[in-house]
From TrEMBL:
Residues 223-237 form the Orn/Lys/Arg decarboxylases family 1 pyridoxal-P attachment site domain. It comes from the Bacteria. SUPFAM superfamilies: Ornithine decarboxylase C-terminal domain (SSF55904), PLP-dependent transferases (SSF53383). Its cofactor is pyridoxal 5'-phosphate. Pfam families: OKR_DC_1, OKR_DC_1_C. This is Lysine decarboxylase.
């Protein structure tokens, strides 16, 4: 329970009054509090620009907060059940990289599920940490990777008692959680930190019908996307720490490496205001969303050929718990893939889903969702039935992950060459390659490209999915092993 007055929004108030103060702006940014006249300024209006200042007197500094940012972060820590909170201007991606860089030095081990977002892999590159991957549960009906198995965690810890940290996704993109309290108990008993990716779970602390939040479960650090589920502007997130295993000054130093020296006051104001809103109104607002999602699931489950997963379905499939504000709909029994359904809903019904997978589509709801949105969703899904085909949707579900050849950081720094995808079998990847969303790499730097990866890439390309890598389409950046053996770096 929050102890501070959560109606307060110190940063938002200060920047608002600065914008209205008629100060002569001889500093950057160059739009001069909206005085500039261009199409964008005229479209969005003056208020957005009035909130966008750089570092005027009295507005505090995110890299060493002492004033209103410090106060706003303390209110956020209180609301999210943490000891310290840090505003992030580069999304939860920045927080995840910072957590891993804070916890691990080069070559130190971190136990981490393989279905992590690319920012965790980038955290491994930046820190030089050695990943000890755990395989997540695979939901073989839906073809998606879920949480981790406690027995596997125990075995992994027994094999790697020198690991510094355990990384957990709370929840996965699809809303599925692992038994986090048990993970924390086991990890702490072995003197390991617990770091949580809460990109999709920043709202957990505000309603007890939702899975437990990382901070409430006793994790040491978590990073959450306020912009995904709490209502702030895209890219604005938060990093939380709790307990005495993490030194706050080390976290601040790491964030200062990863952060712009011109953090967006607009983002900070939107975090401050959204935090206050969810702290004050979140329980009631989330109760309403959860009730609406339950009703919507029931309605979807009346539509022949569609299945909206309930919490019980997820638990039956070895998920520990489920965030009911996400709705996964299995569409493949209609003979269409999730990718086709995603496009049909957008093109024909004006409905933008969060993502598609082979068998399903995912809706992410929040305190901004209205009953009208959900009525249109159900209508769209009824319309989808007309696109039914007499086809069996089969895509091989991957139960294994590629073998590792070297640490991600070494592969990142190794000499490289570019090969055509069809020639990449048995090469060592030097970059992340992923379908976006969800942004979970199919292969990461240092892994050996196997036949399954090549088949997956072919499959997702044929579905029209967005494949992200750093290289021109059709090519993969791989380690040049001939040169690498002569390479003597110690990274
Ligand atoms: C599981 C997961 N972790 C981390 C991130 C990164 O979050 P952000 O977009 O706030 O940087 C995402 C983004 O989609 C994600 O899905």
């Amino acid at each position: 329970m929050a102890k501070l007055d959560q109606t307060k929004t110190p940063f938002y108030d200060k920047i608002k009054s600065y914008g209205q103060s008629h100060t002569v702006a001889l500093d950057v940014p160059d739009h001069k509090l909206g005085a500039i006249q261009n199409d964008f300024r005229n479209y969005v209006g003056e208020h957005l620009f009035l909130l966008d200042a750089n570092a005027p007197r009295g507005l505090d500094n995110l890299s060493k907060p002492k004033g209103v940012i410090k106060e706003a972060q303390a209110l956020a820590a209180d609301a999210f059940g943490a000891d310290h909170a840090y505003f992030l201007m580069n999304g939860t991606s920045q927080g995840i990289m910072a957590m891993i860089m804070t916890a691990c030095r080069a070559k130190e081990k971190i136990i981490i599920p393989r279905n992590v977002h690319k920012s965790a892999i980038n955290g491994l590159i930046l820190s030089g940490a050695m990943p000890i991957f755990m395989k997540p549960y695979i939901d073989s009906d839906l073809g998606i990777a879920n949480g981790i198995d406690i027995e596997e965690l125990k075995e992994t810890i027994a094999e790697h008692p020198d690991a510094k940290a355990v990384f957990v996704i709370n929840p996965t993109y699809f809303g599925v959680t692992s038994n986090l309290e048990e993970v924390v108990k086991i990890a702490h008993a072995h003197d390991m930190l617990v770091l949580c990716d809460e990109a999709h779970g920043a709202h957990f602390n505000f309603n007890d019908k939702l899975p437990i939040s990382a901070m409430a479960a006793g994790a040491d650090m978590s990073a959450g996307s306020i912009h995904k589920t709490v209502g702030s502007l895209t890219q604005s997130s938060i990093l939380l720490i709790k307990g005495d295993r993490i030194e706050p000054s080390r976290v601040q130093s790491t964030l200062n490496i990863l952060q712009s020296t011109s953090p967006s006051s607009l983002f900070m104001a939107s975090i401050d205001a959204s935090r206050s809103h969810i702290a004050v109104h979140g329980k009631e607002a989330l109760d309403k969303v959860i009730e609406m999602t339950r009703k919507t699931r029931d309605e979807i489950n009346q539509i022949s050929g569609l299945k909206a997963m309930t919490k019980q379905d997820v638990i039956n499939n070895k998920g520990f718990n489920y965030d009911e504000t996400k709705i996964m709909v299995k569409v493949s029994d209609l003979g269409i893939t999730g990718f086709e359904a995603y496009n049909i809903l957008s093109d024909k019904f004006g409905i933008q889903m969060e993502l598609a997978e082979t068998h399903l589509i995912l809706a992410v709801l929040s305190i901004g969702t209205t009953q009208n949105d959900l009525d249109r969703f159900v209508e769209g899904l009824k319309g989808l039935v007309a696109y039914k085909k007499d086809v069996k949707i089969a895509h091989k579900i991957r139960f294994t992950y590629p073998d590792s050849y070297t640490r991600p950081r070494e592969a990142y720094h190794a000499p490289k060459k570019y090969v055509k995808i069809e020639d990449a079998l048995n090469e060592v990847a030097a970059e992340n390659i992923m379908v976006y969303p969800p942004g979970i790499p199919l292969v990461i730097p240092g892994e050996i490209i196997n036949q399954e990866i090549l088949e997956d890439l072919e499959f997702y390309t044929a579905q029209g999915s967005t494949i992200l890598s750093d290289t021109e389409d059709g090519y993969i950046k791989v380690v040049d092993k001939d040169l690498w053996f002569k390479y003597e770096g110690d990274l």
